[in-house]
Fold each of these.
Amino acid sequence: MESSLVLQNLLSAPVLFFFLGILGVLVGSDLEIPSPLPKLFSLYLLLAIGFKGGMELAHSGLGPQVLLTIGAAVVMSLLVPLTSFLLLRLRLDGYNAAAIAASYGSISAVTFITAESFLNVLEVNFDGFMVAALALMESPAIVVGVILAKLSAPAEDRESAGDQENRGDQENGGGGLRWREVLQEAFLNGSVYLLIGSLVIGYVVAAFSPAGLEKMDPFTEKLFYGALCFFLLDMGIVAAQRLRDLRQTGAFLIGFSLLAPPVHALVGLLVSALLGLSQGNTLLFMVLCASASYIAVPAAMRMTVPQANPSLYISTALGLTFPFNVVIGIPLYMALTRHFIPVG
Amino acid sequence: MESSLVLQNLLSAPVLFFFLGILGVLVGSDLEIPSPLPKLFSLYLLLAIGFKGGMELAHSGLGPQVLLTIGAAVVMSLLVPLTSFLLLRLRLDGYNAAAIAASYGSISAVTFITAESFLNVLEVNFDGFMVAALALMESPAIVVGVILAKLSAPAEDRESAGDQENRGDQENGGGGLRWREVLQEAFLNGSVYLLIGSLVIGYVVAAFSPAGLEKMDPFTEKLFYGALCFFLLDMGIVAAQRLRDLRQTGAFLIGFSLLAPPVHALVGLLVSALLGLSQGNTLLFMVLCASASYIAVPAAMRMTVPQANPSLYISTALGLTFPFNVVIGIPLYMALTRHFIPVG
Amino acid sequence: MESSLVLQNLLSAPVLFFFLGILGVLVGSDLEIPSPLPKLFSLYLLLAIGFKGGMELAHSGLGPQVLLTIGAAVVMSLLVPLTSFLLLRLRLDGYNAAAIAASYGSISAVTFITAESFLNVLEVNFDGFMVAALALMESPAIVVGVILAKLSAPAEDRESAGDQENRGDQENGGGGLRWREVLQEAFLNGSVYLLIGSLVIGYVVAAFSPAGLEKMDPFTEKLFYGALCFFLLDMGIVAAQRLRDLRQTGAFLIGFSLLAPPVHALVGLLVSALLGLSQGNTLLFMVLCASASYIAVPAAMRMTVPQANPSLYISTALGLTFPFNVVIGIPLYMALTRHFIPVG
Amino acid sequence: MKRIDLFLSERELNRVCKAITAAGAKGYSVMRHVTGMGPSGEISEGMDFSGLGANAHVIVFVEDAVLAAVGKALKPLLKRYGGVGFVSSAEPL
Amino acid sequence: MKRIDLFLSERELNRVCKAITAAGAKGYSVMRHVTGMGPSGEISEGMDFSGLGANAHVIVFVEDAVLAAVGKALKPLLKRYGGVGFVSSAEPL
Amino acid sequence: MKRIDLFLSERELNRVCKAITAAGAKGYSVMRHVTGMGPSGEISEGMDFSGLGANAHVIVFVEDAVLAAVGKALKPLLKRYGGVGFVSSAEPL
Ligand SMILES: Nc1ncnc2c1ncn2[C@@H]1O[C@H](COP(=O)(O)O)[C@@H](O)[C@H]1O
Ligand SMILES: Nc1ncnc2c1ncn2[C@@H]1O[C@H](COP(=O)(O)O)[C@@H](O)[C@H]1O
Ligand SMILES: Nc1ncnc2c1ncn2[C@@H]1O[C@H](COP(=O)(O)O)[C@@H](O)[C@H]1O
Ligand code: NA
Ligand code: NA
Ligand code: NA
């Protein structure tokens, strides 16, 4: 059964286009999606997933189960960076450990979307409020990551952190943490802002002018699957290019980026079971825990923890964890879900 | 009733995405739609609106009512710049007054499209030939603007206007007006050309190969609403960025850009009543009169009246008049329409 | 009857948008589709045509008729460059003759797509496996072109061809032909790779997870016609810009680029008749023979035969042959098809 | 040899490129979608879709002898439509 | 007159442009979507959609007197966030 | 320190960048979607989707000592595939 799930995933259009991108790089094709076209698709996917999520959130309402699930997701996005940090600190300095930890505490929207597509193909239901969990997991992980970086900074760094710039922007108490900047990067980051904004708009439109829903449908719903395929083609190209960087990252980080996802997914499975989530929501919850951010977190870390080496946190999240989750993780987590979670 | 119209407009998806863009700039999010993606959406919207308009024009035919309405629209695009110029001349030099006047005589296709979406939601009918009016209002306003600029130019400027360049391009009689260049900018401007061209193509296809209409439908019709939302997100960002420039423009221009739209709309209402237009067409006619151009006119003015300061005519049209019309103007004009125009 | 086909083609939306682009350049409009938007549409069209072709290939299976047709197409893509080369050699040096010959042996996917649209409007059936023929005709023509170029190179060039670069990349036996590079350019060229890859994916999805087909449909099928129109608008602009270069190319090449298509189409007609192809497939086969490549072949020639002048092979394929086929060729070939090929 | 750097609105690009060639330069390169700030204000990326467009950056390498002609052809254009130009020294690779 | 060329991540662009203006430069130009290699590794086009973004190329022409102020304002930013800067001589066209 | 400016077809970019690094340069920057005119004709934006592609502009700042090696590595490439290169003086900010 598990192997059939793996096959069903491998033979789906989005995953096949992902492979096409990877293969292109490996065999030396010059296929590329020139910038800023990938950004068009990533903005589109965020807008569409947010809008649809908000719309379904309006239909399901904000009951206790919804709030509990979202709360649990936020807690996971606070805990995962902490445990990851402790582990990563064994081999890495504080800045890099914190940045990578933040990435794994946060989420990958494309992994989530691919899991949703997979559930659609299996005809397993899931709830729109999971998108709200997705949207709310990015910021806390960033904040935790920055705090960890600052706490582990050598003393002299802490003092002088912001000296070179205008002081209006910062509150230097407690180790030079520039709260305004951190919160701005955590909550107003372009991708977080668009996702949450679209979620709210989807909610409002569904609640107050439902006639608009049908008119959005061709754009946000019908086009979605094909656009995902197109974007995954590019993700495959980019992920394969990142693989080259892994020589620098070393065996420890490679191991981490392949083992962290299933471990975090297992914790997610446990939490889902405790919360009594349906099979579909459990898979999505596991995927949220298992996936790592390569958009919002790197953008924030680059500004707030410039001492960390971007190629470490980008290469692991994008070059290993993302392909692992999309190709093997999703069907694996689904097999576990089917085994441990009773059919709704 | 009016307040319900305002709410219905405010809670529609396009206007909400417009707000999302504005808010993003105000709170400091780094969300941006990188160029040339906005151009993709603006080209798409022009192509689609033109094609659909031409198609419906073919269905409705070119009867006397159609021709009268289009004629009245063209007259408005000649008169509005004249009266605006006289007013603006009170405080501005001739070049700037002429450029801004041209902008307000011309139209904003996106405002028009947003009004169409609003009518769709209200389930109020309107006619495709209004797009022809839209398409034909851009060029006359540009020509009037250039003439006004040249007439009010200081004598020495008029003489030497084109001296530095090859003389084949110009006819220097009568104040250095380079007619070829002016007409080229007025009629062959990329956005005017695409709109009119698509209108003609829509007409021809509807008349001669109607099988093609259905095949265009998913692109020009189904996708339209979502693409409008996406584009308005960007328009919100851009409009909010322009707001910052308003410090330079001064209270007079701010007042003008907020009062001109409703005044011009009222004139449009009067004309519509005289012409016996339906409620839907009346709203669109008012919007055509009330809106100001930030694509075709600036492109033309920059080339033909380089002495005018672009940030004045862009900031007013895009930073104030556009948001005013989209957010308040459209429902306000609709309320007036409902009050004064009998149901068809 | 033939003239009605010409009209039906001329009055179809894609061809009208193509004219709109050409006319824009001729009258001096500044309409342009900024890069990389044209690349978005060309990538999209390749992906969609490949996916749909693969899907239909899975439905039709790989029977003897299919394999024969594809085999005949490949043979054509080997023969056309040879005969073209002999002809072109009368006036051109070996490098340029070889590069142009390769272009005419290869195909233009957009011409093929336009022919498919035309068949759709006429409600004439055709088979998905023709896309496989399309996909497999690019590489052989490139390989033949490179061999011809090397064979006709002056002796000293052959010896020193790769001396300036690292020798690991090349096998210098037999006239300095760098096989690895040539095969890479022939088979892994971005556009060839995407087309073949999408074909395989379409096949696999149709065979193993047909549920995905329906979800791809809005993207690959519904949107297709409109996107083709948009792209042809750009192709019109580019083709018209190329027309200016034709002054350099001379009467001989202009004659070649207008006569080669119908001659090659006639050969294609003969082969189709021998193979017993249906009317729809015959038209597509003729179009494959008649069209010339301006994407894959120039990309490959530029790298492998840098001595050839790109503006010669690009201007003829894009500025003359492409418009000829799209505007006159397709209906002409259809008229011939109707005359000589019995209705299925 | 001299290197000329021009920054101007992309709307005047055609005119400027023609003037450069007419003045005797053998080549030039153009980068578009350039933003920036200058005497007449800020040009931001957001304006790219509006009629104003963004800036272009034109680079021309010319023989010293041609510099004067190029400068003479371009200065009135820059004066009329806005834009700036700078010159520095260079040599072929 | 001096020409300053800066290459840095587009994420720091706002900060750098503000610093340039604050230091007294009268104008600057920005090109985005720049890729490249430098002390801290390679920035490829594929990363453009990721949170890292691509590089930007900033060109500033300043009077000799302003160079020191611009350099002083920019060096700490380049040091903190990465990026490089170079100076050469130029004159107005 | 020297500044090298290269303009060449984006199709040769990979090769050129590898040659630059191999010759000992510590960094380089690349701008794509460049159009222009040169000895072998005009490259316009419209060609970007065609197989020819547009141009790229590569900027390399190197120590004087490295210039010769970079020049030696690049000249044959520029000769074979087309493209131009120029050198000027610069110093670190
Ligand atoms: N000092 C400068 N350094 C670099 N670029 C400049 C400078 N001054 C102006 N520019 C560029 O030239 C463009 C046009 O200048 P303007 O004369 O303001 O229209 C500006 O938007 C900048 O991109
Ligand atoms: N020597 C150089 N020449 C040209 N560009 C450079 C050079 N060194 C660095 N760069 C550019 O500066 C960017 C940032 O450098 P880095 O300090 O590695 O973050 C690189 O990605 C390159 O685009
Ligand atoms: N004198 C020049 N100044 C600036 N750019 C040049 C010059 N000559 C050539 N180029 C650029 O180099 C590219 C390639 O030149 P080519 O040698 O013609 O292939 C051209 O398309 C231009 O972008
Ligand atoms: Na996670
Ligand atoms: Na108006
Ligand atoms: Na052919």
Amino acid sequence: MSAGVKLEVAVGGGLTLRNPVLTASGTFGYGLEFEPYLDLNRLGGVVVKGISPRPRAGNPPPRLVETPSGMLNAIGLQNVGVDRFLEEKLPALRERGVATVVNVYGQCEEDLLHVVEKLAPESGVAAVELNLSCPNVKEGGLELGRSPRAIESITRDARAITRQPLWVKLTPNVSSIAETALAAEAGGADAVSLINTLVGMVIDVERRRPVLHRGSGGLSGPAIRPVAIAMVHQVYRAVKIPIVGMGGIVNARDVVEFLLAGARAVQVGTANFNDPGVAMRIVGDLAAWCAAHGIADVNELVGAVKGNQA
Amino acid sequence: MSAGVKLEVAVGGGLTLRNPVLTASGTFGYGLEFEPYLDLNRLGGVVVKGISPRPRAGNPPPRLVETPSGMLNAIGLQNVGVDRFLEEKLPALRERGVATVVNVYGQCEEDLLHVVEKLAPESGVAAVELNLSCPNVKEGGLELGRSPRAIESITRDARAITRQPLWVKLTPNVSSIAETALAAEAGGADAVSLINTLVGMVIDVERRRPVLHRGSGGLSGPAIRPVAIAMVHQVYRAVKIPIVGMGGIVNARDVVEFLLAGARAVQVGTANFNDPGVAMRIVGDLAAWCAAHGIADVNELVGAVKGNQA
Amino acid sequence: MPYNLTAAVERQEDLGAGYHLLTLAAPEIAREIRAGQFVMIGLTDIDQMLIRRPFSVALVSPGPDGGEPASIGLLYKVIGRGTTLFSRLQPGDRLALLGPLGRGFWLPDPALEAGGGDETELLLVAGGIGNAIFPLLLQELGPRAARTTLFFGGRGRADLTLLDWFEAHAGRVVTATEDGSHGQRGFVTAPLAAHLDADPGRRRLVMACGPHAMLRAVAELCLARGVPCQVAMEETMACGFGVCLGCVVEKREPESDFDRFVRVCTEGPVFDAREIVL
Amino acid sequence: MPYNLTAAVERQEDLGAGYHLLTLAAPEIAREIRAGQFVMIGLTDIDQMLIRRPFSVALVSPGPDGGEPASIGLLYKVIGRGTTLFSRLQPGDRLALLGPLGRGFWLPDPALEAGGGDETELLLVAGGIGNAIFPLLLQELGPRAARTTLFFGGRGRADLTLLDWFEAHAGRVVTATEDGSHGQRGFVTAPLAAHLDADPGRRRLVMACGPHAMLRAVAELCLARGVPCQVAMEETMACGFGVCLGCVVEKREPESDFDRFVRVCTEGPVFDAREIVL
Ligand SMILES: Cc1cc2nc3c(=O)[nH]c(=O)nc-3n(C[C@H](O)[C@H](O)[C@H](O)COP(=O)(O)OP(=O)(O)OC[C@H]3O[C@@H](n4cnc5c(N)ncnc54)[C@H](O)[C@@H]3O)c2cc1C
Ligand SMILES: Cc1cc2nc3c(=O)[nH]c(=O)nc-3n(C[C@H](O)[C@H](O)[C@H](O)COP(=O)(O)OP(=O)(O)OC[C@H]3O[C@@H](n4cnc5c(N)ncnc54)[C@H](O)[C@@H]3O)c2cc1C
Ligand SMILES: Cc1cc2nc3c(=O)[nH]c(=O)nc-3n(C[C@H](O)[C@H](O)[C@H](O)COP(=O)(O)O)c2cc1C
Ligand SMILES: Cc1cc2nc3c(=O)[nH]c(=O)nc-3n(C[C@H](O)[C@H](O)[C@H](O)COP(=O)(O)O)c2cc1C
Ligand code: FES
Ligand code: FES
């Protein structure tokens, strides 16, 4: 770590991370799988795979396909469920002292709140990140996360049952992410994290079928980085709460780009698959980049982009 | 052209194209610039640069930046204006007998309808394609094309003043493209074309400024192809009118992918910059692909994707 | 524990018909890798390749001074974008490399392998590039390799890469090609079935690697005859070390609803044919 | 009319410090290209490179049997992803190539070039890799090249690529480096200004290529002294043939609001310094 550069960032709800680099949900397992490749304690934090009330088997394969500078996934939120998570995974993470953000998924609102409630009394939960990709039955079945009204109401409900820092993860598949971010803020979120994956599809032209068994999937990786940067910047101009940015980060330059756009912290996702040591290397490179650019405190970069803002 | 494969496609409003491969607005000039590289008459059609009521100078540079498997542009709709278009460009295109689709842009609804009106009496306009990326002042300044209500109303207005086939070009920056497509259909569009570019931004971390002078721009190229395929497929399941698909097409395989997803015709965009002869080569390769796969009529492919449709 | 490193290309041999043998300097992996395990390889520049590609280690070889294994050989076929890029690599170029990964083949319980004559007969079945998994197995088997039989199928003679090597190292090689250009015409499962039926009482273990349809046919043959069978599976992988959950295959007898899938990269790639749905 | 073709790499020469000279077999282009024009080059695989890159043609050379120009030489500096990929190309590899493109330099009105002694003095100004545009100009000038002066600036000696070639082909070469490792220390505009001021009455034409800041300084020097000046501009290009409208620069005196910008790829890359805002 480059001596003298302050990397700590405050991301709302009283949570301070030792540096702005976390790993994204669904791309870092439960964290422990990465111990052969890096020191978890060198990371700003770890966001675990989305946790649902009951274990989920996920979708049949194929679940993945490479796309130009990206990938599509339709894992189907395979996870051990909240009970096993609390028994097996959280204690190990707590023991290691790594800032653990728990990504929460439910097939309906009650499910989601059930997990939040189970997590609420636990120590070692740095923050709860709500993944609102479940269908919004009340409003015609589109994802919950596409409706500002639904976001505000579920955030408020979650806020009422936990004192843990509460992050709302925003989908990019909306007409105005500033609106959904404002809804999360109004509902009492301590931070918003963005972006989740874009909906995409690849068709195998020989078989005349989608490559993914489920049909469509979520697009991630460098292909979506320009979209993510634009959205972080839009949200930065709309809300007052901290932003956790992600989408296509592969190196320290990309982290700086997100910070300049307005993110207080970032998450590294798909790149972890390419190189399980990448997140820790990025932390080191970020410190070195700051030092080389005469930046004493990484917070100086947050939202510091100048010029036209359209 | 592979003997025997029927390539003609009917794209609504009585318009039949000699094959499904057009070129996308803003990526093919006024068509004539490509004559050194290909035979315009071999294409299904040409969509010209967005035409506005008056000439537009466009944005100051930089206007472009490469991104992973894509590019961002903020040209600012530089164009000669409808009068010079009708005087200088349309007659030359008409003379060549190439199916010419005129992309129409206005800074407000009146502007847009003004251009539609000027085009209405002209022969040699195969179709009018409405680009609804102007701000929707009535609904808070978001792009017109993001509001189903605004789309339906302007489509209806345009419908009332022209008998030329009317296409509505849809933006992907919406919560539900099925809804905006349905709005266009309800307003009387003969076809919908999609997708326009995704909003994106790249920041130069050394200068701490967006690379593009305007700040954000439109993302195009192979990076967005999975998003485009998913959207074409969603729209195919929602509307009855033909779909003209685009987004990241670089070869005949990609064209087949769009047809299978539900497009009746396609537009080749960014790839024209890489190789000005690409669109014509794709036409030939598409015919050869059909022949090699025992497909007698390219229409057999339209919407023929099977399997899970999520 | 897998190593995450960059390795230099030592050799790139073009074997014709799109097959290549790529030798990388990777002593740590060469020493620890076991037959059936694999590595993920990628270009060092992530902008050129976001997702690494999985490859079996075909061979290990000692360093210039002999002694301990120091290099790994990957036998691969050019399929798409990734393998095309790999095929352009020159000696001295560097690759990103993660391995050894996964669970390889396992040999019969030593307790069963009592006296001389009673040894389990090892039958290897390769379809096309599936042969890439077997040189390392034969290397590991040592003297026992000479008592194995390799059933080796391909579309034509050109797909039977390293055939000379196998003829020198396996006890016997039985070939079958779809176009009849080498060995019996047809699928390799025909001579395999004939062999299994010729001496049905014999204790055997079949180890198979190749296209999915071949694995399914081999597994059916074996299961029908009660012959133990290990199959090396392929599924699209993003990580190779168990976290993306992309590479799953279906279990034959899940214990619970949650337990429906297993990961090829971690629980496999080699599975007992009875474990999974083929 | 530009040719749209693929061309084979004949040679890739590493000139050190990140500079390369790439020679391509492209007889059509070699015969027609004029100094200051450029080509767009790309990999043949669009998946590896979506947007082609613009490069001046530095040199043309005849085929093996002498005679007509058959190859073009591109002198380039490794900057980012594209040039890194180009630097790995080997003889025999193929590239996608479009050209000749744009408007090159133009020589003084022949009517002005009356008798011997009255010839316009041609002053070439190169900053760093901007020198790439001048060998072709000197080739075109023929015997007149010996009466030109090249002002050649760079950060250090390593940036003065092909210096020996220029010393052999231009009349005189005046160098300046920021670190003082060759010629005068500082910017190349200092010796240029001194030269212009030494004999202010002389009829001259300055032709400049290099970083934007250098072009601006050169143009100011010239405009202040009424010396005609041609500048070769760079702007990000997607197409190179006038259709993407990405590569514009601002006109100094637009005739109308609509006319504010000109395209570097079509109206340039060489502009009269009076035409555009620098
Ligand atoms: C455990 C394992 C071991 C393997 N060992 C070998 C080997 O020794 N030799 C060899 O030639 N091949 C082997 N393969 C297959 C090899 O990984 C693919 O041929 C290769 O990934 C193709 O990459 P591509 O970019 O050229 O093809 P593309 O089709 O362009 O690849 C697109 C994507 O699909 C994936 N993919 C394509 N084919 C396969 C496949 N058959 N299995 C899994 N993913 C695939 C790629 O990894 C990539 O992510 C192995 C696969 C697995 C899972
Ligand atoms: C008309 C013209 C002639 C040129 N001639 C030469 C030459 O003879 N030799 C030489 O070394 N360079 C020349 N350049 C600059 C050269 O095009 C860039 O250095 C090169 O494109 C960098 O590509 P990259 O992928 O390595 O860099 P990256 O920075 O990765 O490129 C990213 C994008 O920015 C563009 N870009 C980057 N730098 C420049 C630049 N200076 N000008 C325009 N676009 C840029 C690239 O084309 C690409 O689209 C010329 C530029 C122009 C416009
Ligand atoms: C395989 C995979 C699984 C994912 N699973 C989850 C998940 O369980 N919950 C969630 O909120 N996001 C999930 N995501 C989204 C990522 O957390 C992240 O938002 C997205 O991938 C963009 O970042 P990236 O481009 O760096 O990968 C997943 C992404 C991938 C690639
Ligand atoms: C430089 C550029 C200019 C464009 N100008 C227009 C335009 O004037 N009107 C319009 O409707 N779309 C415009 N587009 C969008 C394209 O027509 C197309 O919808 C988009 O680029 C997706 O296709 P592609 O990925 O094949 O390029 C432009 C795209 C580019 C890259
Ligand atoms: S490849 Fe990622 S879990 Fe197996
Ligand atoms: S580069 Fe496209 S118009 Fe100049």
